[in-house]
Design a protein that fits this description.
alpha/beta, eight-stranded mixed sheet, 11 helices
């Protein structure tokens, strides 16, 4: 299927104009384009819903209602009062969003933390997830560990420390974030990073602590009940994207990913592409994506 990915940079709207919706005890802001079957696009760290600015019009043109929420704690979504960033809770936000938008089910596209949330939602309620697309994170039911990956994950362990990561990450206009992008996507032009929305989200009151809270909840606040859900095999049809030049998660980690699925599964490996797959290789990504989900109507 031929598809043209847009290269025009959309003008970012005033955050006060974003649509908002109350789900699962937190008010989420979201971007939306098009009408038709629902597709929810979930971002990760360090990122925002604007990671999908170029994808939303492509999905809309293909006949879908494309929605990209800002995850809980990411401005302009609300910071949850209870500081709960467990993946089952974030996945609960996604499932509640489907209901709140008046739909019975949705296609989920998730990158990084959004990828974990997407397949966790599919494990919790497979009847509400028609298809699953995940970028740049492994499935915990079949993740292959390595010493090389432990070294790549240095930032995960750094984020477990109290107060110091907040101080270090925020220095010099969040130069730490620029450093991560360069390391995670070494072949991507820095002029394409467009980190304004990311840094605004982190600089908002409670924003940086919220973003790091995802890492702290996963490691320091590890829960067997959450792990059990995330390590279940997934039944919904799934398409997985791996950037082979990803400086955050190495390709060897995905060696056994197919074992995590009881339904149709395909993995796409993209040479020379780093962590931000959909933005670094938009043409290859959108062609494969639309081939998988089809055109609506």
């Amino acid at each position: 299927m031929s598809v043209k990915a847009t290269t025009e940079r959309p003008v970012e709207q005033d955050p006060s104009d974003y649509a908002r919706i109350q789900v699962n005890g937190v008010k989420l802001a979201y971007l939306e384009q098009g009408s038709g079957p629902l597709v929810i696009c979930l971002h990760g760290f360090p990122d925002s819903a604007h990671s999908y600015d170029e994808l939303l019009p492509v999905l809309a043109a293909a006949g879908y209602r494309a929605v990209a929420p800002f995850l809980r704690g990411y401005y302009p979504s609300a910071v949850p009062a209870d500081g709960d960033y467990a993946m089952t809770t974030v996945a609960g936000d996604v499932l509640a969003l489907i209901d709140a938008l008046g739909e019975r089910d949705a296609i989920l596209i998730g990158h990084d933390w959004g990828g974990f949330a997407a397949y966790t939602a599919a494990n919790l309620a497979p009847e509400k997830v028609s298809k699953l697309v995940v970028l740049a994170v492994p499935h915990m039911a079949a993740s292959a560990n390595s010493l090389a990956q432990l070294r790549r994950s240095w930032y995960v362990w750094f984020f477990q420390l109290p107060w110091l990561p907040e101080k270090r990450v925020a220095r010099h206009d969040f130069a730490f974030i620029d450093r991560l992008y360069r390391a995670w996507s070494p072949h991507w032009a820095e002029s394409e990073f467009r980190l304004g929305p990311v840094k605004r989200a982190l600089a908002a009151p409670g924003g940086l602590r919220a973003a790091l809270g995802y890492y702290r909840r996963m490691i320091r606040g590890a829960s067997k009940s959450v792990y059990d859900v995330m390590s279940q095999k997934t039944s919904v049809p799934a398409l997985w994207f791996v950037g082979e030049a990803d400086g955050s998660i190495g390709p060897e980690v995905f060696a056994n990913t197919a074992d995590a699925f009881t339904g149709p599964f395909e993995m796409v490996k993209l040479a020379g592409v780093g962590h931000f797959v959909n933005r670094e290789a938009p043409q290859a990504f959108t062609e494969k994506l639309l081939g998988f989900i089809g055109k609506a109507g």
